[in-house]
Batch of 4 targets.
Target 1
Amino acid sequence: MKNKPALKALVFFGAGLVAGRFFDPPVAVVLFVSTVPAALAFACWYADKRPALLSISLAAALALAGLVRYELVTSYFSPDHISHFMNHDGIVAVRGIVAGYPERRLEKVNFTLSAHEIYFKERVWPTHGKILISLVELDTLFEYGDELVVRGKLRQPKDRRNPGEFDYREFLLAQGIHGSVMIYHAAQIKKLSSNNGSWFLREVVFPSKNYLEKFIRNNLPAQEAALLSGLLIGERGEIPVELRGAFAKLGVIHILAVSGMHVGFIMIIFMGVMGFLRLPPWLRVALTILALMFYAHVTNLKPPVVRASIMGGLLLFGTLLERKTNVYNTLALAALFILILNPLELFQAGFQLSFSAVFSIVYFYPKLRGLKTIADLLARIQGRAVLRYPLELALVSAAAFLGTLPFTLMYFNRLPNFALAANLVVIPLAFLGLANGLVAAVFNLIMPALAKLYLAASWFFLHTLIHFVEWASALPFAQIAMYRFSLGLGVGYFMLLVLIFNFNFAAARRWLIIFVLCLANYFVWQGAGRNSNELTVTFLDVGQGDAALIRFPNGKKMLIDGGPRGRHADAGAWVIAPYLQREGIHEIDALVLSHTDADHLGGFPFLMRNFKVREVWDNGVMKDTQLCREYLGLIDSLNITRRVLRAGAVVDDFSPVKIFVLHPTENFLKQNPANVNEASLSLKLSYGEIDFIFMGDVETAGEQAIPKFGDLLASEVLKVSHHGSRTSSSEQILNLVRPQLAAISVGELNKFEHPHDEVLARLRFLNSRVLRTDRHSAILLKSDGKTVEVVNWK
């Protein structure tokens, strides 16, 4: 790292940020401790002695500075901060200023509100901080600088609710957003004034962005307009989900996210136009740097654009001074600038992908270009630009692909097989579409007739890009799903890559042999420490519904209930399937349906279509609904074995675990034909000395039928019936079960006000530990047959 001071500072400051993520020390203590290395570093520098001690002290001071910076952003909020007013049961009113450009989505418009006052608990409180406002299908639009009063329920954004899920709360927190309010009616929002905020943003940046957005929307078909908005100004919310999926599947989703590539496009366009106008070099550089600053603000200062703009500006300035800049140091300087302003960016996928792509291009591109076969080929086609430029583009794409692959696997769970080849087509088409669209927007102000020609060209390139991506993404083997790639594997991948690319050095060859041997040992012994006698039960957070995955010691898997399915969400597709895939589960031995209400059956159809299901179990009681007909139709069409179970049955298929059916009996179904809740299929799982009871949505009548099993009901774990409703979990049944742990699957702030206080009181009386998915997220339990423990997965 010689002569790279910014890179050194980044490494130690970043280490402090990582430490802050995993530890939570008091800020005051860390500040006090940090004065020691800081003072020591100053003393060494002032005395011009002990350079080694100076380096160590500086490193420690930078790491502690990173730790303090992280803690200040995530843990320290003043008493009047907006984060203290979240999740109040009633309606609040917030007065504030629209702090950003409203972003259009397919069914709503989002914007941030910088809060100034809040009406909370019958009192007006001064406050500060940002919240996200979502206008759902409203025609009323607002602009940056508008002062508004917003009425609604102020909610903390959802965090990671199940292992491996995307953390939406952390994503918004990285943007300085701490809460959200949904606006469904115009009466919930009132405009007080306009023309607040930054003059530069209000009068220059956002009017320009608004002009570009309207020009694009009014002059291009919907898909092409949405794509150009994403390419040019970073507004991709209106790109159809199917089209975004096609870009992702092909491995070219980076085109839709404004990044260094788009900044490069802007630099090429501006430098080309100003070169055509014969402007002097200093003026070209100055105007291009101003254009980059303007573009960064147009794209809402997204970190990849800020990084690329800083790097581009420094490189251009270096060429003007005729001084060679160190690219690694410049890259580190851009990263430091972003992380000092917002340390949470370090943990965002966009930041990691952006910087890894550029670092990889800088490091791997020269090495790829220096490979003998490629170097010879480049020498032969030196004067033939038509052949050389595609090869150079392929090498750049390959370098970026190598560096971003681990992050692509970790965040998108896919290995795109055609990404390198696709980039040779996608990047030129995207550039030509963006360039012609930008030129058309400029000429529309002075020569509208000429603008139409460029607009037609832009449409052609964008239209061709869309059809190419849709066609290529539909090819067989366009991607391979990979859900088990970890951070540790990513570190190992980079180590292996560096050793391979430095194979010509003897030290690298020696370390490569050691690394391969260590890797072989890891794969041989990775399963040796696992407890094959372990039973795990995961109560997934599917909102107001039930879904529990059971993994048996013999390797088999069972899913009890499939969560809800509604107009906008399917728990099977959005929660359960991704979790199964992340866990490497492709086959389900038994889908168990407690009863046919939509909050239990909803996710099953998707799972039955997309996973190999060996058996389904249910109580045989079907409602006359489309969902039930779909369920039965899939059983038939997919040739899935169906078991209809009755109380008293014992299932030994999952040995050493025994499964006892507690409810319903045939006689009970005859006496209670209409109530599907009461007829819920109820099971007891016994593994050694540990028992689990799953009771579906059984209520009063069903619970009165179950006590006939007497002492057999005693269990360590109870899945509380009917989400903890008042009509369930009677004293009689709880006194027989006497659970140590009571798991309640329930939606956060649900309209039914589950679980009921009386149920919670009865469980507390028995000294049962209550775990709720609305408060604790997914509940993960594991047992060796002698004890059961709660696993802290967050």
Note: The radius of gyration is 30 Å.
Target 2
Amino acid sequence: MRVPLDWLREYCDPDLDVRAIEERLTMTGTKVEAIHQHGVRNHERFVIGRVQTCERHPDADRLSVCQVDLGAAAPDGVVTIVCGAPNVVAGQTVAVACPGAVMPDGTQIKRAKLRGVASEGMILAEQELAIGAGREGILVLDELLRDGQLAGGELPSPGTPLADVLPLGGEVIELEITPNRPDCLGVYGVARELHAATGAPLAPVPWGEDLGSPGPLVDAGEPSVEVRVECPELCRRFTARVFENVCLGQSPPWLKARLSAAGQRPINNVVDITNYAMLLSGQPLHAFDLDRVAGGRLVVRGAHEGEQVQTLDGQTRTLDAQMVVIDDAEGPTSIAGLMGGARSEVGEGTTRVLLEVATWNGPNIHRTGWTLGLRSEASARFEKGLAPEQCDHAQALATRLLIELCGARVLLGTIDAGPWAQSDRSQAPSPVRLRESRVQAILGVPVPRARQREILHALDFQTSDAEDGLDVVVPPLRRADVTREADLIEEVARIDGVEKLPATLPPKRPAGRLSREQRLRRRAVDALVGRGLYETIGWTFTAPSTLERLRLAPEDSRRAAALALENPLSEDHALLRTTLLGSLLDSATHNAARGNVDLRLFEVGTVFSGSALATSPATSDPRRETGVSEHRALGVLLCGRQAPTTWQAADPPPVDFYAVKGILEALGEALRVTVSCAPAPDPEHHPYLHPGRAAEVLANGESIGWLGELHPLVDGWDAAGAAVAEIDLDRLVALAQGEADERRYVDLISFPTLREDIAVVLPEDVPAANVLAAVRESAGKLLDDARVFDVYSGPQVGEGRRSLAIALSFRASDRTLSDVEVAPARERILTALRERLGGELRG
């Protein structure tokens, strides 16, 4: 929210500069996001001038050459200014920027020649002073005086500083208002915060004097005005007043300047007054042209499905049954809490105004705005939940301004409809007890009761003494936020100065520690980082197009279904992801676009799917009733080269299936779980993987995921040839329970190993993993290690067969082995390979 500093100082003016005000507000919880400069920064070169003569430029039809009296502001008193405004004439009192003046957009006014005529300044229009853009041509002060819009009530003499009669701008603070503080969505609410934070005096509330009146609306004209609320759960209060003899026109410069500085566009005096009252009180208002309200009747009701309304921005919006509209005898005339309708807009010819101030249901307004893609200053306030009492504040403010600036006459009475208006408010709200002992226990330091009372009174709380502290009555604008003693302690702490609280240790050291599952997950992450991988974090949501690019057909029953969100952030985040692969590929593409093509990435995150849980036996677990399955997954992506280019290796090999397989095996070692691979049972189950270079990942023999190289037909990412894997990290951690914390030490150096190599010819469809498993099972305790170090296929071994060269390492912990001791183990290995796998010793 933008708050002009001069407007804020009107209600609370501490003897502090803007930077000190920023610090105090931020330290008390009302964060200042930025400080802007609106309008003219330096006022010295902006003065009042009087046009003495005005003649047509000799070489330009649209330019005029004016002699302008600047009094003491010019060495010779009178200067020549070339002006392009069509409404400049002799005798006018105008605003002038002298040479050296800097305009709001940063342009510096200089002496110049325009079509051969020297010009020493610039006659200004409203928009050039950032006041507004409602008046065409230059700003004529005589007209402002005639309309009663000139400060001081008389024409200033030439040379008078322009800042004496017109607002030229100043500093604007931009605030971040948290959702629990809608009371600070108005300038006066911020002034109250500044008053509490600095101790500077606070001016009386600007709505203290109400020129309107309560009670039934008295209308001598026709037709009479009626308001009916048909959805009280969504409209707690609806107030309305009727104004006659409204003179529609331009707002005075001071009002335009404040609206412009606050980020609002001045339109006309009636609309500007509603915006001004909203910005000051925090309560939105809406003005109807009463003569355009069909039947003189307004009904607050739920919209019909498919109903349409044309809003003030010229758009026709289609509504659903959960939205709220205000309609008249001809149908919807505005969308409640968001935007008025074009049909009852205040405009040229308006003389009777119906001023509406209402309290709407915040969540409903938020949903309506999100669904329609429509958000306004009003909806931003209603979303946070306003108090019904604020309607009176805004009505009183707007009533006074309509009478003063529009010459309006307010009819007796105020329409007050809705459940709040009909409720019994005679009983005072229950106070909240604030104990001195509890304040000290929570904050660690005592805060005197007198100081607590002073802080709470500054924030508009009412207090009375109690035996052990204070009984506090919460003001209406804070009742949704302050409900208990801890909330009051927070108010005391933030105003008294959280930065003044000493650093203290809690009375007891926390005994919490990571669970075993958490420790194992961290060990898994550390293992990957230790092997040169970088962790990425992706969106939990994904787009339907991502599944299509991964060749995942939503209707394929062999895979878990993707779950659509009811309220997606955007089309790109419409589904819950079923795999981490999409976000890993997005990260790879992002890096490739910046020249990083050799990547080693991993991600830990939750994946979701529609599952068979919905058909499981009845259970008290609500997650089962949704039919949604989720688990924590770990994804790995390698692309580019396996190692950096060096002078010794100018072209390192690219990553492949075996590179990512090695990463997973290292992960298994870190968790003391045996990770291995097996042929994928159904290659089509993972269509994003190369059919000949994919496998199933096993942990202790149980399937936990997949790995492989990216399918060449996967398109849309800059990661061709990537090697990828994804496993169920929750399942891997569960399998590591009870084993990962064990410490196992192996003697590596006391006695040497005995190595023997064998070459075995087998059918080519026998996996090497099965060969090594048979070797390890049959060799006995002396076998220390077995690995394949060469593969040969060719005429020497026959068609359909291949030769695997296996290095066998034998070791004993108490002696050096001999060939004689190893021979039986070697024979058992050959027998197992021959009988179980159809292998034979080569040559």
Note: The mean pLDDT is 90.
Target 3
Amino acid sequence: MRIIHEIHRRSLWQVLGIYVAGSWVALQVVNEVVDSVALPEWVSGAAVVLLVIGFPIVLATAFVQEGVGGEKREEAPANPASTGEGAVPGTRPASPADPPAADIRASSRGAHRRVLTWRNAVVGGVGAFAVLGLATAAFVFMRTAGIGPAATLVAQGVLEARDRILLADFTNRTDDELLAGVVTEALRVDLAQSESVRLAEQSMISGALTRMERPTDTPIDATLARLLAQREGVKAVLTGEIGQVGSSYSLTAQVVEPADGTVLFSHRETADGADGIIDAINRLSRRLRERIGEPLGSLRATPPLERVTTSDLEALRLYTQAVRAIEFDADDERGIALLEEAIAIDTAFAAAYRKLGVTLGNRFEQRDRRIEALIRAYNHRDRLTSSERYMTIASYNTDVTGDVQAAVTAYENLLESDPTYYPALNNLGIVQFQLRNFERAEELYLRAATAERSSPFPWLNAVWPQVQLGRFDAADASLDSVATAFPGYATVDEYRGKLRVLEGEYDAAIDEWTGLLERRTGDPFYESLVHELIAMVEAAHGRFEEAERRLALAEDADRRRGLPGAALEHALTLAWGDLIVFGDTAAALSRVESVLARESVETLPAADRPYLELGDLYAQAGRLAPAREFLAAFESSVPADQRGRGVANDYLRSQAAIATAEGRTDEALDLIRRSDRGGCIPCVHPYFADAYERAGMADSAIAVYEDYVDMTWVDRVYWDATDRARYLERLGQLYDEKGDLPKAAEYYARFVELWADADPPLQPRVRAADERLQAIMQEIG
């Protein structure tokens, strides 16, 4: 062969240089094949071993074939005795039977030369790699066919791809009582990156525990995990333990069959010290995923655990405690505090930032902290799992930039890879609802409920589009589903009360909320919520003294929760009543200014300062100079790229309020229409009504009022407090002025009924409407 001929022409050092260069090229080729065909990682390691073994063989072959330093072989000199010339006296002539010493050396070298040939070296190397190829092919075949020790659980038919696996809490056999929880959470994060492993969600576990009448924070040991898996139809349980010997740690995990506890697979990893635990978890997770049946290419493409969580064990410990506090103990306050401790340790801990932003968002409070957390999570999104990265991009675009289409794209990209991913289905439903695609939103929520039967949120969210579509029976059925799966779930009572308000059953609504308050006494979150809801109903009926008493109780609960701005928030609610219900501008401004004198708005976080609402109130009151100042303060404190879609809409409406007060009706109406682009439906009605009334556009005002009073919106109770009665009253008056007496009588009657027990200062309006109603009834017979 030509290659062998060329090798013969080279010196020893040239041959070794060629071998090293050839080995490098061979490894690049092997690595490329391993990556492109998704072969086992050990193939590359085996190739390195073969090349290392080949090195001394090539070295020896070059030495034998070419000589040290490439010396030329010399012929042995002739033996003088063989011719009789120049014989040394006194010596015995060599016998023809004795081989000369040179011949012995030549014979030995010849034997080596016959074995250590370039042909043998090349053929041996090719053969060794051929054996490696055959071994690799056999491994891949056995792995996919479910044969032998290389077989995966999916290939064996024990599991199917994406079957749920329930992760039990690791058993702790160390001196650190929190370490097992850290390992469990870290393993959960890493397994969440898998294409084949689908962990049972925390909501499913909580729901199952509730149905078993056990606390949702019950530790999930191996025995309970198997029981839960059998009850919920989960195919396998993943158990494990962490032990300690000196400064070393051992981590063991087992995949177990729930029914009889048969161990389907077991693996162990060790860590030399605490700093090596995260890396050991990473290795353990990858081995588990490989054995379960994850494609090798997907496994190799997965970033290491420390890249999608944190490399700091203490930060991970705090994060683990926070997740448990929020998801199991329903203790958001403690969870938030723990998350902030974790972030202080690892300032690039994206998962902790995201959890903080989501938790604050679910509570609809502290927007400034929530926005900051979402921005930090987005900036460090390369340190998240693939699914969390898409979710973070979407949250950032909905809540921070307001780019809804970018959020939709992120959710859809995630659902392409996993059409049953519950959080994406649920959140995309929220976005579609905000875009007022109600049919699509309901479809997504119901798909989410099917994909994750153990979470209450998709059923609760489905209530919103169902109400908008007039499907009250479906909405009640959705609440029944939550009540059945999660007995005592507080939001069910909250929503049932809101639906009763929409149906005009106000006493039933108050009964629902009072029962909720009795069950959650001592919980300041629900104390604030219930007192505020009841205050809204009382105000809608004209009972503002009782509403003020309830709002004082809500404010007290908010103060116990440590919420800034509680006094100003509730003062604004009552000030709107003073202004647009009682028509008392001085009382409205005095109420707000007395709070501002005690608690400056500048002490609040920038995104939580109610500049826009203050500006709206002052514009409505005709105080345009302070209204513009509040608007300017908002513009300087909240950057345009951090307002989100909802806040951006509020900003347009605040501009409209000032334009309306200045008589620029066309500009005001254009701003209001531009703000009506999804999300809150009743938000635009007060602005339209004010603009039309000031412009004397009675027919347009009537259309706005009628649209509102017949509106179905889950949270309408908050607008009813100040708007419902006055809209009914005004409709009666406007139809009366138009001469449409039947319509006027209809709305006068509804107004009188709603305010029958209103506070004494409001009773003259009730009597006037009732007297006019009686006169109309006599006139039309």
Note: The radius of gyration is 39 Å.
Target 4
Amino acid sequence: MQRLVHRIEKLLTCLGTLLLVVPTSTPSFGTTLDLTRTVIIDEGRDSITSKAALMLQEELAKRSGIILPIIKKASSHDLVIRIGTTTSTGDKQVPDAKEAYRISIDGNSINLLGRDPRGAMFAVGHLIRLADYSEGKISLTLTKPIATMPDVPFRVHQLAYRNTANTYDAWTIEMYEQYIRELIFFGCNGIEIIPCLEPDKKDGPVMKETMRTMNRKLATLIHSYGLDVWLWSPVMADGCEDITNSEGTKLAWEKRQAMFASYPYIDHLFVPGGDDGDAPAEHLMPFLKGLFPLLKTLHPQAKLWVSNQTFTTAENNYFFDYLQQDDLDWLTGVVYGPWTKIGHQEMRARIPNRIQIRRYPDINHTVRCQYPVKDWDPVFANTVGREPMMPQPSAQRHIYLRYRPITNGFGTYSDGIHDDLNKQMWNVLGWDPRTDPNVFLEEYGKLWWGPALAQDVALGLQMLEENWQGPILENETITKSLVLWENVSTHCHDFDSNWRAQMYLLRARYDAFVQKKAQAEQQYEKQALSALAKASVVGVPQAIANATALLAQADTPSTPGLLESIKQLGPMLLKSIGYQLSVRGPYFARNPERGAMLDWLDQPVNDRLWLEQRFQHILLLDDHAAQLKALKEIIDWTKPGPEGFYDNLGTIGQFAHVVYPQTWHQDPSGLHSPRVAFPYYKADHATFQLSQETFQSANISFEKKPNSIANSHRQELRMSWQSQIATHFGDPLRMLYHGLDPTAQYRLKVTYAGRYHPTMSLIANGGYLIHGPLKQPVPILPVEFRIPRAATQNGTLELEWNLVEGRGCMVSEVWLMKD
């Protein structure tokens, strides 16, 4: 960025500050205006409008190669761009609201006027979105004046410089500045950073500076653009703090007071009540009350926020009672974040109206998160993983609008730029919820691919979302999206440095590779099962050897060219944006689920690992009949017998008997409805063991009490065990069957699997106990129960699992079999 500034200053010295031309015709609405020889007039009286003018100059130059001079006084130019505020111009037509602005044409001027300096900054961002670019030319078509103001006051994104991020920790301050500018284009008015209480700490191998040093620079940078500086700072998150006693509280206050003093600007402090943070509510709230004066002394305008994430029912009751106090002027608002156990509506109903609510939506994860991908094929969940490139224009728009009336804005949770489109979608909706998504997508495409490719990019982004809809083997959009993105990339003139172009091409290639991989491995497994069926003829050892060889066909990639093309994009993305696509060097992602997509290319997407482990056990059996029986069990695994039912819970289209109290559109987070869950399962044993320790630790923190650690012995998982239907926060999981034989005896077989390791009870038809408190078996094995005849004598059966202990109900497979 600094180099560009010096280059511009040098060029301006050569060109002079005035480009005198003969005036032509007066510009008007509806005509295409040539901005090639326009000048920029900064009429503001503050540093923010000057920053806006510089941003306009530099961003137009990047896209056209033309550097428009910035001057202080108009001359005889045929067209000028004026940047200012109502204070400097006296304009009465700008909406009377903070951050509002008006874009208009008046005489030979394009006016970008804000109600305040921040409004002028947003007007500039909007003009950058509206303009058209080509090499050596800038043009603008404005059909009518634009007068607009934001819908919500908080439009914030978390850009934390920490090892958890799959890109940010590799950035320089110049990279941060460019990205913050691009968020401003669409209306972002705040950046949330994560401070470190230790002044000299670096928590990742790719960091160029200490966390404290970078965060201080970020605070200054954010403030220079007129945006709010937010800090996200948990309490008792690392096991080294304890505010449940007076001495620990004093030490925690002192640490934060020193941290506050080191920051040049703090506008908002957000303290999560959990995820991260493990301070009990009855200690957290008094702690924050005592912390606030320390914050205000150093940053008089700063505001304090808190969330009730992971609070138990008892903690929530304490929390909401506490908020009824009259002397609560120190608390500005409550944040609704992931793992909040009540809904948005209940939150608003239990909080006094004087207290604002800000959302903290997880827009950067696909699974094990607040808003998992709807009806996602397990093949994708076990390959592209938790942090892939994930443009979701339709889903994110729905999630935003679903809870918009209840909250005062948002601060998104993001740990990388893989969710870039989602951030910008929240920005435009936070400004105007009526925004046409197609217009937004084309503006997004035009900004970073140019006008000629804008429509193709808009379509391609929608197609990437559609790639994940429905069973992967049947999805025809995947091939079409690959063709489109390959074509877009071929015509992208700056592809070698355009990280967005590289990123979405990688996703298109990855989806296509995984689809071909799944199609091939499904066939290999079918062939292997056919080979096992011949065991009585060729012998068990030979049948197993034949099946093993057929499964091993997966060792040779079905599309080696596509695989290589994916790997080639890795170094490009590392160079252009610091994308950490592998845990190995030179990338050094924190762990495989933090966007390390290159580490999942060889992940099996059939039952190969489970089958090979079963083969080892079967070959150790001394009884030939027992061996044949075990092989038959494998072959007939999904067959429930005549008039029976088999549900593979979690695999799209294969769990028709699950009862949904609310649809996804009503409850996209699955707060009070079943949702598909995916455990962390990787073919690599070391990462699997690490993941088990991580999830057990998370469960302990979530439940606020010790939890038994599951057997750490490695058990390979069937694909049907790599997804479950889950419910949360004590809600039961129900399944309903109709058309049963009233005279028959039924048996139930269930596979309990999932990362929560819950203890559950099971009741049939509201009154028949099938089993009492039962812990998820270790190792995972199906368990069988007899259904009382009286329970099915009316031809229907409702099964209800209730949580006894744990984080939520989880069930992977259910067979209802007729004896």
Note: The radius of gyration is 29 Å.
